[in-house]
Amino acid sequence: xxxxxxxxxxxxxxxxxxxxxxxxxxxxxxxxxxxxxxxxxxxxxxxxxxxxxxxxxxxxxxxxxxxxxxxxxxxxxxxxxxxxxxxxxxxxxxxxxxxxxxxxxxxxxxxxxxxxxxxxxxxxxxxxxxxxxxxxxxxxxxxxxxxxxxxxxxxxxxxxxxxxxxxxxxxxxxxxxxxxxxxxxxxxxxxxxxxxxxxxxxxxxxxxxxxxxxxxxxxxxxxxxxxxxxxxxxxxxxxxxxxxxxxxxxxxxxxxxxxxxxxxxxxxxxxxxxxxxxxxxxxxxxxxxxxx
Length: 292
Ligand code: GUN
Description:
By secondary structure, the protein is α/β, with parallel strands linked by helices. The protein has helices spanning 6-27, 43-59, 74-85, 105-111, 123-130, 139-150, 170-178, 198-202, 254-257, 271-290, and strands spanning 2-3, 33-39, 62-68, 92-95, 159-163, 187-191, 207-210, 228-231, 235-238, 246-249, 263-264. Helix content is 40%, strand content 16%. The strands form 3 sheets. A 6-stranded parallel beta sheet has the order 1-11-8-7-5-6. The chain has a 3-stranded parallel beta sheet with strand order 3-2-4, sandwiched between helices. Helix 6 crosses helix 10 (271-290). The protein is globular, with a radius of gyration of 19 Å.
């Protein structure tokens, strides 16, 4: 079993990006700049946004985090997005999800200029992705592709089962793994909450991408010998074994599944850091294309 080390791989990617930033600095040009908007007090969102901000510092990007209280109106949020869209000094913009119920995530996603949409959530960018046109691939699926690629895992002709059909992970992942490209070229089955007898599908899978958000859902009896397992889940649960009183669990029951795998991602330290590396890559891509 080989552990797909997201910490190590994301550090490699960040080092490569930092080298690019040094080259930009030498020319005297302005640096790539990511803006992040966060609304409300969601603890997980705050952790993710802090990690994104820190990653920008590490590679030498400029970053701006804009925090709004839960009570901000949709109109005011949309106004701010418009302002950032028009700001030539900002290359990438993301609004951390989820948003409070009174704000439409669809309206917010559609308000972000597609050329600054480093999350790759805008319908134009999702459409371009489905047609394999140049675009921003959303960060978590892109991070998973990078991990597969950097470990040199062959994917063509394999059967990939994606569990979960969210707009952020499962849906784009299924499209990317099916496209005529590397990594890709797999036969994809997209399973979800209405799938009957899920195990019959997962047992056929050469690659399983678990993105359903239920801790330790995927058990050893659901995985065939030699499978590649990518665990996108990250749920904080109470624990008496840790000092903090909390631990992070993936969607895969790692202890029993990992001995059967050829490759598997750990949680934490697998997909999570790759997501951030992919976001940085997208921001650099936005910088270059907006400066040409
Ligand atoms: N919430 C959970 N994952 C993400 C992400 O990749 N981007 C944004 N904007 N919000 C998220």
